[in-house]
Design the sequence.
């Protein structure tokens, strides 16, 4: 596992380049639920997602360890691709990103806009094979989306900042889980800063490989990309590095599709922010956990991103859920 020192060092590296995102809350939501919910708004981060943190730390770590970097490569369904493209552009390093053809068009175009080359394939398996082949070339370095210690340390800086910003003890910290980089880094930061707080993950029920890995203690792999609104959590499996962190989580919840759309609408309405369903998914896990608690709780939620294309937006708003007030 990474150490808290790794996260502190990552924060020093990336601080000049990333946004200092705020922690926000909704008094209306708190009143309805009877608890205090705080949100670390990584939807306002560079590239619109927390992934900028891990990408930036990974690029800088590579530069410290290698004098000659001809190119960096990575595979992603969207936010990690943007993060690596953006981070590489900060240091004038060429980048090639491998993405599935079903990835968000907004995320693919944004990746190109940072100057990166984008190559798309029809399946996740084809994407994985292509990036592995590219990384075998001399001077080419692969930045995995989550199974990398420098990436995990970078992602952990979001929880580090959030817990320092809020200035009070939390009962729990929640984050979504795709490949597990964000929840892994969040675990290490929270254990150091607020050891009594629980650290809990959320994942789509339709793609519950990480949840099943958490339960079994061994990596469970999906046969194909899950069909879910949470396009930031469509990974086929977690990695051995993230598994070692995920094993130590306090709890893990899966979320069905309807609550993702429900909470996307409500968080956008209450927080006045553009929140993607992978982020909003976590609020359903929060509610599942709160129903089992006694007394008022203080909860930190990492809002992982806010990148949504037109097609996804139409799907998310096909039904008006704002007529149903949030309650436990």
Sequence:
């Amino acid at each position: 596992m990474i150490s808290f020192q790794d996260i502190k060092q990552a924060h020093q590296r990336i601080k000049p380049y990333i946004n200092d995102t705020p922690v926000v809350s909704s008094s209306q939501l708190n009143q309805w639920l009877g608890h205090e919910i705080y949100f670390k708004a990584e939807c306002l981060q560079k590239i619109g997602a927390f992934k900028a943190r891990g990408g930036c730390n990974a690029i800088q770590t590579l530069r410290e360890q290698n004098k000659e970097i001809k190119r960096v490569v990575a595979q992603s369904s969207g936010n990690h691709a943007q993060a690596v493209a953006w981070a590489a552009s900060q240091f004038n390093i060429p980048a090639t990103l491998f993405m599935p053809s079903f990835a968000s068009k907004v995320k693919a175009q944004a990746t190109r806009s940072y100057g990166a080359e984008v190559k798309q394939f029809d399946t996740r398996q084809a994407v994985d094979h292509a990036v592995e082949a590219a990384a075998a070339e001399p001077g080419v370095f692969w930045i995995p989306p989550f199974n990398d210690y420098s990436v995990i340390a970078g992602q952990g800086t979001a929880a580090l900042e959030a817990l320092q910003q809020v200035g009070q003890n939390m009962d729990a910290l929640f984050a979504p889980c795709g490949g597990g980089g964000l929840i892994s880094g969040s675990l290490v930061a929270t254990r150091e800063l607020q050891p009594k707080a629980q650290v809990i993950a959320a994942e789509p029920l339709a793609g519950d490989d990480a949840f099943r890995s958490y339960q079994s203690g061994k990596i469970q792999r999906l046969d194909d990309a899950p069909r879910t609104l949470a396009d930031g959590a469509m990974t086929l499996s977690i990695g051995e590095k993230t598994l070692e962190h995920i094993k130590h989580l306090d709890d893990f919840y899966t979320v069905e599709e309807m609550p993702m759309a429900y909470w996307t609408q409500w968080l956008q309405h209450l927080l006045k922010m553009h929140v993607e369903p992978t982020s909003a998914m976590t609020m359903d896990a929060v509610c599942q956990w709160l129903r089992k608690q006694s007394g008022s709780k203080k909860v930190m939620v990492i809002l992982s991103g806010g990148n949504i294309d037109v097609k996804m937006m139409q799907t998310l708003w096909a039904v008006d859920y704002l007529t149903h007030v949030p309650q436990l």
In short: The chain has two domains: 4-50+149-316, 52-142. Residues 4-50+149-316 form a domain with the Rossmann fold fold (CATH 3.40.50.1100). The beta strands are 23-24, 36-41, 71-75, 95-100, 117-121, 140-142, 172-176, 198-204, 251-255, 298-303. The chain has a mean pLDDT of 95.
